[in-house]
Design a protein that fits this description.
About 40% of the residues lie in helices and about 5% in strands. The chain is mainly alpha-helical. It has a 3-stranded antiparallel β-sheet. A hairpin with a 7-residue loop joins strand 2 and strand 3. The longest helix has 22 residues. About 30% of the residues are buried.
């Protein structure tokens, strides 16, 4: 079940002909579990390059579906026509898509996204603080179109707020804000080397073991 439904205890609605607000990312998250080393239960795994490439490509395809839903005249993985519904949004999403496709073609050795704990601790924006003209930078849907909006604020800037369902996939692959590309988590410092006298004591003990 998606994080929106879990956090608000919303039961799945009966099937209807209405288009979903966002693509189904369940396959993306299933594949992500194979390569995600951000959590302690998978930290020693060795991801397969093909799986890493797949998660980047899956997210690119999901974001492309969002772009097409907002602008049916947009060309796949290309520039939109002059009569975009929201040209700025289409260009922004196209930039994310191109970044993801580039990473899919040349995947990193491991996925360096944020942990589930980081996502759980993101500031939630209450519904009463949302205005009618405020929308998610990724899906471009007004936050208040959701009966129970689940909106989070990134720590880099107070105006960088997103639907959790839209920003979570990006953050699981990148520890950066998609708007300003600022890093949101500090890199873990390697442990300091042991003091020199401890190293010598260890060598001495091994000689007489």
């Amino acid at each position: 079940m998606d994080p929106y439904s879990v956090e608000h205890n919303v039961k799945p609605a009966s099937p209807s002909n209405q288009s979903p607000r966002r693509p189904d990312f369940s396959t993306f998250f299933s594949t992500l579990e194979l390569v995600d080393t951000s959590n302690t239960n998978n930290v020693h795994s060795t991801p397969i390059p093909g799986d890493i490439s797949s998660v980047f490509r899956m997210l690119a395809e999901g974001y492309e579906r969002m772009r097409q839903d907002q602008d049916p005249n947009a060309h796949t993985h290309g520039q939109s026509d002059d009569h975009d519904i929201n040209p700025g949004h289409s260009r922004f999403l196209e930039g994310l898509i191109q970044t993801l496709l580039s990473e899919a073609d040349t995947p990193p050795k491991e996925v360096n996204g944020v942990s589930d704990e980081f996502l759980a601790e993101l500031e939630r924006v209450p519904k009463k603080a949302l205005k009618k003209d405020m929308s998610c930078p990724i899906c471009n849907n007004p936050f208040l179109d959701d009966k129970y909006p689940l909106v989070v604020r990134l720590p880099c800037h107070k105006t960088h707020i997103f639907d959790l369902e839209c920003i979570q996939p990006w953050l699981k692959l990148h520890p950066t804000c998609p708007l300003d590309r600022k890093t949101l988590v500090k890199k873990k410092e390697p442990p300091p080397p042991p003091p020199k006298d401890e190293e010598e004591d260890g060598d001495y003990d091994e000689m007489y073991a």
